[in-house]
Amino acid sequence: MKVPVTLIIIILVLAGCRREPVAVPRRPAYPRIQAPDTARIAADGLPAPFSVSASAVMVSPRPGWLDVTYPAYGAVANITFTRGRGPELEEALANRLERMTLNAGGLPSERREWTNAAGFRILCLRTDRCATPWQFVAADSRMVVSGALRFHDPEAVMATDSIGPILDAMAADLTVALDSLR
Fold it and tell me: pLDDT tens digits, residue range 34-44?
């Protein structure tokens, strides 16, 4: 009788080892975020070259404006291109910087500044739990390019833990676009 009991225990142990492997750690409630396509497409008819991920949809509702929609993420970046010289350009830049501050609503923000290869001074502002969680302004001696990213679902903005990876992916895509401004 010892042999059949030992045999049954061995069979049960071996049967328990045949499960499908599960990657650990992975919580089923958190979806994996797909990064935007690395292929780029350029918008036509704008005062400056601007290209985004091929997975985005670009529409120019009027001259000098560009709406970049990310259908997979439920978000849109509203971008404007303002040409000018001297005081006119300085006024447009000051207006946009004020607008960015007002949009942040006094919430803590992460700020990133740099100058791209073409000489555009770029400022990006990330503010979690805000209607426009990622804003930017880029300026050189002839133009101000500004924009704000917003989500179609305003309640999604409050879910910072789940929206953070999506915001990171779109911010990375738009950062590449800002670096390519000429």
Answer: 667 778 888 77
